[in-house]
Specification:
single chain; 562 residues; alpha+beta; wza like fold; Outer membrane lipoprotein wza fold like; 5-stranded mixed sheet; 16 helices; 26 strands; disordered N terminus
């Protein structure tokens, strides 16, 4: 019975027939208790409303056209009617029992008002709810100097930038394969890195194919009007006029870049930009991310070409930037202020209350000062440990290491091998404290710019990995030795080797174990194990090598016989 009632209700809604209000209430009552009742109409509408929009539709600006769909709900004292109605190719909509209403060219709010008025003219007491449930799609022509001109499907809420991105993503970048590309293609299914390299190659080719396409001199041919499009200026300003919505019957023209201008120095995004006719210096600086705080706004130099071989320079200032019109191939330099005081900073991270970036006076501000500014340790911090990293020291070339690496390994002295090993076991440019006394002693350490202070977490456990019977995490005890943790983990397996390593929690260093290296909370103990090998594979490799050697002998023999 329930199924029959539900079927009749759905048929009534689908074919636009009225439904007795009492019958609807009975259906609701019958299914609400069981949890089986739901609004299929609403679900269908929600499923269809998957169009990407950067902001809600403006009912005053959205123009109705063929293919737009409305959900119309009419409630009166004796009936409920639900309709899903589409605008016809002629721009009209048919409301059952009301008639045909012309909506072509009307804004959304006026179209809804028209439909409401027509319905209420027949039943003044009726409640009318009208919703734009589905946005139409249409095709527009894209022309210009691109590989894939033609028709593209858009909606009234598609911006030029959206369509531009779709066009770029569809450009065919296939070219004749070179040897490297063939290798990547052959191995991409076998090795992950092959696929990665191939993708990188494609990106490089894309960067070669696309840079010539304009992003600032696009335009829409619209009826008797031409709408200019500047995607770079839209990105810089957010003003919609530079990136409009696409209208039906528009033609998008994408030309090639013709000329460039360059701007360097005291701007946030220096580089070369596409030239736009009539653009001012002020506009270009805005496109380049605005001026930096260390720029001198009174000292701007513009170098301008009067011919392919002749040029001249002149000075201006930011105050006159709106009056300076940029010309093709201009080179602009915003000079830095000679007396500008840069803000030097240090970074605090890890188990600290307020991690972040803090201003410092290099050579004056101490670690203690920064710890005080950042609120001190969290409850999870290991106050006995601290790591200070200095980028400047880390980037200083290690000339001794470079010298040794040029020496064949078999010719290196014992001291040289020891130096390389020592460098591998230490982090250059890092000051690390591993005890409460050390940490307390370095609070007066004077910081340099861009120093990074790391407060590690107090893990309170030690990991035992590798060739042990029960690898895993075990509680940390300050008095425990390596033998104690090996006993906790069930002892060594038969495949264990003498290789024992400590992986330090703070730096991640892998240190061969000796009695002088203490085990601390968060450390990992790694026991190396013997590598198992397949006897058949060893025999196979041996036979292959012997075969290659035999072939070589035959070749040499034949050469000698000639």
């Amino acid at each position: 019975m329930k199924n029959t009632i539900l079927y009749l209700c759905l048929c009534s809604i689908m074919f636009g027939q009225t439904l007795d209000i009492n019958a609807l209430r009975n259906v609701q009552s019958a299914f609400s208790n069981s949890g089986e009742y739901s609004s299929s109409t609403t679900q269908n509408v929600q499923a269809k409303m998957q169009i990407k929009m950067d902001k809600p539709i403006d009912p005053k600006q959205y123009i109705i056209g063929p293919g737009d769909q409305f959900l119309v709900n009419i409630i009166s004292s004796d009936q409920v009617a639900n309709y899903t109605l589409s605008v016809s190719p002629t721009g009209e909509i048919l409301i059952p029992s009301v008639g045909i209403i012309s909506l072509s060219g009307e804004s959304l709010n006026l179209a809804i008002s028209k439909m409401e008025s027509a319905i209420k003219s027949l039943n003044q007491s009726a409640q009318v709810f009208i919703l734009l449930s589905e946005i139409r799609e249409f095709k527009i022509k894209v022309v210009g100097h691109l590989q894939n001109p033609g028709l593209y499907t858009v909606t009234p809420v598609t911006r030029v930038s959206d369509l531009y991105q779709d066009i770029i993503s569809e450009i065919d970048i296939e070219e004749d394969e070179n040897d490297d590309e063939k290798i990547n293609r052959e191995f991409k299914d076998k090795y992950d890195y092959g696929n990665i390299i191939q993708q990188m190659n494609q990106k490089e080719k894309t960067a070669i194919v696309y840079p010539e396409l304009s992003t600032r001199n696009l335009f829409l041919l619209r009826a008797k009007d031409t709408v200019k499009v500047d995607l770079a200026k839209f990105a810089a300003t957010g003003i919609d006029q530079y990136n409009p919505f696409i209208n039906q019957e528009d033609i998008l023209v994408i030309p090639l870049k013709q000329n460039l201008v360059s701007i360097y120095g005291g701007v946030n995004i220096s580089g070369k930009y596409e030239f736009v006719q009539g653009e001012s210096l002020h506009d270009l600086i805005r496109i380049a991310g605005g001026i930096r705080p260390d720029a001198d706004p009174t000292n701007i130099e513009i170098t301008r070409f009067t011919s392919p071989t002749q040029k001249y320079s002149f000075q201006t200032s930011l105050a006159h930037a709106t009056n300076i019109i940029i010309e093709p191939e201009d080179h602009i330099m915003l000079r830095y202020a000679h007396n500008y005081k840069r803000q030097d900073v240090a970074y605090v991270q890890g188990e600290i209350l307020y991690p972040g970036v803090y201003t410092i006076e290099p050579g004056i501000t101490t670690i203690g000062d920064i710890l005080s500014k950042s609120g001190g340790y969290t409850d999870y911090a290991d106050s006995s440990k601290m790591i200070i990293s200095n980028d400047f020291i880390e980037e200083i070339p290690d000339k001794e290491k470079m010298r040794i690496l040029f020496i064949p390994e078999e010719n290196r002295s014992g001291a040289e091998r020891a130096y390389i090993k020592a460098r591998m076991l230490t982090q250059k440019g890092t000051l690390e404290s591993n005890s409460i006394n050390q940490t307390q002693s370095i609070v007066d350490f004077k910081l340099s710019k861009n120093d990074i202070i790391t407060i590690p977490e107090n893990f309170s456990f030690v990991e035992v990995l590798g060739a042990v019977e029960n690898p895993g995490r075990y509680a940390y005890y300050s008095h425990f030795l390596l033998s104690d943790y090996l006993e906790l983990s069930g002892g060594l397996t038969k495949t264990a080797t003498r290789g024992k390593f400590i992986i330090k929690s703070g730096t991640g260093q892998r240190l061969p174990f000796n009695k002088n290296i203490g085990i601390e909370s968060g450390d990992a103990i790694f026991i190396a194990e013997k590598m198992e090998y397949n006897k058949w594979l060893v025999l196979k490799d041996t036979l292959t090598t012997l075969g290659q050697f035999a072939t070589l002998v035959l070749v040499i023999q034949r050469v000698l016989e000639q």
